[in-house]
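Lab manual, section 2.4: Encoding a predicted structure.

Procedure: take the sequence of the chain (172 residues), apply the prediction step described in section 2.3, and record the output as structure tokens. A sample record is shown.
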Amino acid sequence: MPTRPLKKPVVISFVVLCLLAVGFVTALPAQTNVQDGVEVIDLRSWRNQEGRTLADVNQGHSMALVVLVSPNCDTCAEAKTSLENLRERAKKAGIGYYVLMIPDGTDTQKYFSYADSLKINAEAFVWSNAEAKASPTLTTMPVPSHVLLSTDRFEGRISNKWAGVPPSTSIP
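Recorded output:
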């Protein structure tokens, strides 16, 4: 059976449909998902006070250790010396250490002010993706909690997590 070449309007329609499909896929909201049984966090959904993403700031690190805190957490303030010691140990190991916060409203400034008050010399980030919710894992963990992430450019795969600060302030 002989084949005939596609007519120009059909080819153009096909190309337009392909471009629309690509645009739709890239416009989907960033969400936490599970790959191979491991939860993956979108690092682009966390922004610091200057508007930079955790993905941008963490470049050059294959691992990131994040501590979840909240302005309502008295334990976080009491543990700031341990948090600083853990941040220093992570730095020596070549691991980025960051403060993550999930705001309960639109006033993110109080979260950044709280992170600054801890004086642990770690960059702070808030959840900033209005189209998707933060990971259920992160939203249900008590504060303070730590999460060790294996990272690539845009994603962090949860390698380990634990509530509080390890008594020895060593990386598990």
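Check your result against the sample. The domain at 30-163 is CATH 3.40.30.10 (Glutaredoxin).
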